Amino acid sequence: MIQTQDLMKVYQMGDNEVRALDGASFNIENGEMVAIMGPSGSGKSTLMSIVGCLDVPTSGSYALDGLSVENMSETELAEVRGRKIGFVFQQFNLLARTSALENVMLPLTYAGYSGKDRLDRAMKALDRVGLSQRTHHAPNELSGGQQQRVAIARALVNEPSIILADEPTGALDSKTGVEIMELFQSLHKDNGQTVILVTHDSYVARHSDRIIRLSDGRIISDEANANPIKAGTPRVEE
Ligand SMILES: Nc1ncnc2c1ncn2[C@@H]1O[C@H](COP(=O)(O)OP(=O)(O)OP(=O)(O)O)[C@@H](O)[C@H]1O
Ligand SMILES: [Mg+2]
Question: In whole angstroms, how far apart are CA 43 and each of 21, 114, 214?
């Protein structure tokens, strides 16, 4: 469970202070699927990097599964990240000229798994995202949607309890974006993973059970979405 209270993140830019987060408080239960929305510069990525233990807040508290992370050292944060969190980005961030399989095995190499274990786990993750037929393709031999699936498999391979995705559909056409959202929905339903994603697209956001809106580093709304869009529903443009 994610519990935050009064998160502040202040960047000093010369004489100016930028309040990227200005007192955000929220809890996210295990297994929730939450979308974060808000204009550019409202603090969404800053929030994700704190929740993902990539960074610590300037002040305020953050407990992850009961463990206070706001004052952890770099090493301690890295340990929590490796154990609990999988990241997905807008631009996939895959290694070029490196097969899908090797891209997915990489986090396991860092985590010290043996060769056979690595291969089995990476194959299982690629199978989970529907790419068991593409394991030897390099990123430039895959479509955008397939590349994002490889990135999701890489995020899954350590079996994290939380998946954080910063605009995971931002570089994809809308049909492929919806397929990626359906994949997140099935991970959340079948594996009980907590999924937190940032999006500018309200149709994408409505695939989640809850939508948090940020403005100027503050939460301006936090609402349950009683009827998340389900797989196979045709997109209706507003
Ligand atoms: N490392 C940094 N140093 C200084 N200012 C920063 C830094 N990172 C972010 N900011 C500032 O903090 C504010 C929030 O940035 P953030 O990246 O969280 O916004 P965002 O909501 O993710 O925007 P976008 O939708 O464009 O990705 C912005 O004003 C930004 O300029
Ligand atoms: Mg951002």
Answer: 6, 39, 7
